[in-house]
Amino acid sequence: MNTSKPAIWVPGDWNALFGFGTNILLNLLVLTGLLRFVLKMPDDIVFGRILPACGLMLFMSTMYYAWLAYQLAKKTGRTDVTALPSGTSVPHMFVVVFVIMLPIALKTGDPIKGWEAGLTWVFIQSFVLMAGGFVAPWIRKVTPRAALLGTLAGVSIAFISMRPALEMFMTPLIGIICFAIIMVSWLGGVRYFKGVPAGLVAIAVGTLIAWGSTALGLNYGGMSLDKLAASVSNFGFSIPMPAFSHVFAGFEFLGVILVTAIPFGIYDLVEAIDNVESAAAAGDSFPTTRVLTADGVISLIGCLMGNPFILAVYIGHPGWKSIGGRIGYSAATGIMVILLAWFGVISVMMALIPVVVIAPILLYIGMLIGSQAFQETPRSHAPAIILGLVPHVAAWGKLQIDGALGAAGTNAVAVGFDKLGQVGILYHGLQVIGGGAILGGLVLTSIAVFVIDRAFSKAAIFAVIGAGFTFFGFMHGEAIGFAQSPVVALAYLGVAGVLFGCAKYATATPKPVEMHASHGAVGQLAS
To answer: Judging by beta carbons within 10 Å of its beta carbon (0-12, 13-18, 19+), is residue 254 exposed, middle or buried?
Structure first.
């Protein structure tokens, strides 16, 4: 074993700190905006409880992965070991807000209840992660990648992309221009002056437009000096406090939480394995079990202190390695984050930056997550992915209808399903297919993938699993319980019977040859 002490900081760590630190800062601004403007969470909870706890979690994770890299460098005697990047899981940030916290906050009329449900969601996911080192390889083996990514794509379209897109076009002078700044860089490869990140450029330009319009008396973007002055009141030293009672209060909503926490915990396992393998391919082999355990333990600590956002190892280790990042960039990012979160600086940043400039970043993230389902899976599985999107679209549609009727002081039952049906709104259908959309999309996509691959026995097994989930309300239902949707469960068993019959008796036919997009009907439509 090499006993020399690795360097904690090298010049390349400055590059990685600026890039990775900006990424983490943007995520903090986004989640703060979600808490304040989507969930309407009180500022004393956001800046006095949630952000300090989130800062603690990020500090612990970045320090741990810096230490893990230090140990690897010390063991191998190498000077080019790069720490794994980590932070709040961006996809899950939106899932917990829009799928868990917001519906519960709207239903109860209390954003604190939404916060408590989010804490319980992370509590359960933390244990899934900790146990994941033992079961992740098996889950990854039996579940089609298209099902895991397709479910996430459904969430990205319905619950991540739609609202930001609407906000952008409601304030187009800021939203659309900022979106163009991001697109030409993140999609078109344009580099801005001295490599300044596109997200930072978009925020700067949008902020200048907003404050410029305020100076002209137009107030385009909702900025004001009064709000900026008020934000200073959140300055102060706030350390995270135990939130045990809030965590366990969220178990009131356990049925809703389990439907998403378990499948997304499974996705976290697969994502972590993929990202650790990516780092290994770049030359840095970290133990997967220790990574998964650390993510679970640190997420649990953050949750018990009041943070409703799960921790994840980020993709991008090879990128930070290529620009010279080693060990120090990870630790320095953790120090920066804890100072911002504990001293209330983020409050002032939110008062300086218009909310709408965050929307293009959210839409881009939704685009990226949604497209990944098609890019990282066989082209033949695309129809299965589309099928998996349907439950999420149904859930989003039902949420919009419920919100509109609630604002009018009524609900779908009071209006009557028949009357809604007369104007083309099949509300009961939205209820059934949109209930437990995460698991519903996962099961439907898995069945379709195995049918496409002519693996009818595997498809039948997933149909039986779907019947079980449906019978107990985990999917196609409004609550967890016994015989929640028995007719739908029976239909899944019928599907399983058809598929088992195909596996035994159907005559195999040659699979169609896949065509490139430049040929056939797709190419004609594109042209």
So the answer is: middle
Helix or strand holding residue 501 (H, E): helix 486-505
Mean pLDDT over 426-447 rounds to 89
Whether the predicted model's global pTM rises above the 0.90 cut: no
Residue 244 contacts by C-beta under 8 Å, 6 or more apart in sequence?
304
354 φ, ψ (degrees, to nearest 5): -65, 145
User: Using CA atoms, how far apart are residues 517 and 526, in angstroms rounded to an integer?
Assistant: 8
Closest C-alpha to 260, from 61, 434, 450, 452? 434
Token pair recorded at residue 308: 């409703």
Helices within 453-485 (DSSP H only) = 456-471
DSSP structure class, residue 514: P
Q: State whether residue 505 is helix, strand or coil.
A: helix
Buried b (16+ CB within 10 A) or exposed e, 442-465: bbbbbbbbbbbbeebebbbbbbbb
**The pairing of beta strand 86-88 with beta strand 311-313:** antiparallel
For residues 89 and 269, give the distance between their C-alpha atoms in angstroms, rounded to a whole number. 12
Residue whose entry in the numeric block shows the structure tokens 């009141």: 233
State pLDDT tens for residues 506-516. Answer: 876 666 555 44
Answer yes or no: is pLDDT of 383 > 90. Answer: yes
